[in-house]
């Protein structure tokens, strides 16, 4: 078992700027929370409300797409066809199109109606980039870099390195929720659930209701469930003999999760939902929701699995 030693100086984080890939995408009312609100916590997201019949939309769209791509990942663009997806536009009280809103850190920060010349659009985007830099999100903030590096270590299995770096952060900021939760995640990853539970119980009052602690609490609950799931080969054999043995498939999902095979675990639960979505009082869907809480809302697997689950439930 690793220990939590005196912290050492953090290494410089290798934070590369976001690339230009996928900076422009079409979205829907259903995906708005993920594509815009959650994504805007890391980088400004521009939302272009448009419709195929709208002449000014056809003028605005290509220009703003070109400028967003030129920003090389400093901002993103999400396009929503209001004919197909009117709900979010209605909630934002969009009365005419094109309508453009900019979101950052989960909230709207700027916007305009109607087509604009390229020079004004560039000024609009430059303003968003400066806002992100001023907040530290795009300026290489040392604390954010250290947290990102510690998470990379944790994801790569370097638990001691991650603990060392989280410890350094906690020395500087004893109530840093991300570092506190990260240390608990290291304990969970090492299978030390008792100490993880104890550290969670001893969290400073200022952190008790933080979303980072809520996510790690969900991770601990799932890890405790998975600890008693059973041997993977035996469970796989049962499912192979009877595809409708949902109890064994559920246990298999938990065993796979315990073994670090997250993608395989969620696929087994999705299979249960596909075959019998109401099985055992909707247990498979509820367990997927627990997984989402444990992974965190912006984890790529959470985003991908939510979409798959929505497709199954609303087809």
Automatic annotation (TrEMBL):
<dbReference type="InterPro" id="IPR011990">
    <property type="entry name" value="TPR-like_helical_dom_sf"/>
</dbReference>
<dbReference type="GO" id="GO:0045454">
    <property type="term" value="P:cell redox homeostasis"/>
</dbReference>
<keyword id="KW-0249">Electron transport</keyword>
<keyword id="KW-0676">Redox-active center</keyword>
<dbReference type="Pfam" id="PF00085">
    <property type="entry name" value="Thioredoxin"/>
</dbReference>
<dbReference type="Pfam" id="PF14561">
    <property type="entry name" value="TPR_20"/>
</dbReference>
<keyword id="KW-0813">Transport</keyword>
<dbReference type="GO" id="GO:0005829">
    <property type="term" value="C:cytosol"/>
</dbReference>
<dbReference type="GO" id="GO:0006950">
    <property type="term" value="P:response to stress"/>
</dbReference>
<comment type="similarity">
    <text>Belongs to the thioredoxin family.</text>
</comment>
<protein>
    <submittedName>
        <fullName>Co-chaperone YbbN</fullName>
    </submittedName>
</protein>
<feature type="compositionally biased region" description="Low complexity">
    <location>
        <begin position="10"/>
        <end position="20"/>
    </location>
</feature>
<dbReference type="Pfam" id="PF14559">
    <property type="entry name" value="TPR_19"/>
</dbReference>
<dbReference type="InterPro" id="IPR017937">
    <property type="entry name" value="Thioredoxin_CS"/>
</dbReference>
<dbReference type="InterPro" id="IPR013766">
    <property type="entry name" value="Thioredoxin_domain"/>
</dbReference>
<dbReference type="InterPro" id="IPR036249">
    <property type="entry name" value="Thioredoxin-like_sf"/>
</dbReference>
<feature type="region of interest" description="Disordered">
    <location>
        <begin position="1"/>
        <end position="20"/>
    </location>
</feature>
<dbReference type="GO" id="GO:0015035">
    <property type="term" value="F:protein-disulfide reductase activity"/>
</dbReference>
<keyword id="KW-1015">Disulfide bond</keyword>
<feature type="domain" description="Thioredoxin">
    <location>
        <begin position="5"/>
        <end position="130"/>
    </location>
</feature>
């Amino acid at each position: 078992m690793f220990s939590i030693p005196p912290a050492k100086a953090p290494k410089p984080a290798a934070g590369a700027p976001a690339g230009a890939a996928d900076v422009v995408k079409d979205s829907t009312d259903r995906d708005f929370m993920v594509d815009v609100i959650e994504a805007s916590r890391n980088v400004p997201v521009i939302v272009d409300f448009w419709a195929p019949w709208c002449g000014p939309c056809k003028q605005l769209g290509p220009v703003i797409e070109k400028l967003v791509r030129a920003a090389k990942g400093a901002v993103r663009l999400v396009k929503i066809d209001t004919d197909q997806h009117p709900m979010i536009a209605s909630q934002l009280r969009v009365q005419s199109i094109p309508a453009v809103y900019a979101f950052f850190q989960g909230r709207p920060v700027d916007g305009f109606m109607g087509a604009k010349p390229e020079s004004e659009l560039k000024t609009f985007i430059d303003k968003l980039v400066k806002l992100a830099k001023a907040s530290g999100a795009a300026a290489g903030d040392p604390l954010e870099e250290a947290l990102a590096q510690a998470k990379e270590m944790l994801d790569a299995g370097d638990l001691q390195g991650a603990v060392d770096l989280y410890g350094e952060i906690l020395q500087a900021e004893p109530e840093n929720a991300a570092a506190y939760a990260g240390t608990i995640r290291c304990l969970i990853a090492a299978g030390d659930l008792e100490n993880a539970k104890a550290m969670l119980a001893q969290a400073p009052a200022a952190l008790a209701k933080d979303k980072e602690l809520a996510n790690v609490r969900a991770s601990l609950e799932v890890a405790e469930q998975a600890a008693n799931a059973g041997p993977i080969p035996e469970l796989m054999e049962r499912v192979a003999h009877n595809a409708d043995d949902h109890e064994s498939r559920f246990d298999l999902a938990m065993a796979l999760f315990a073994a670090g095979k997250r993608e395989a675990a969620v696929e087994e639960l999705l299979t249960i939902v596909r075959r019998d979505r109401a099985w055992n009082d909707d247990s498979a869907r509820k367990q997927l929701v627990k997984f989402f809480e444990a992974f965190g809302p912006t984890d790529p697997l959470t985003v991908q699995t939510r979409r798959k689950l929505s497709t199954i439930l609303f087809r």
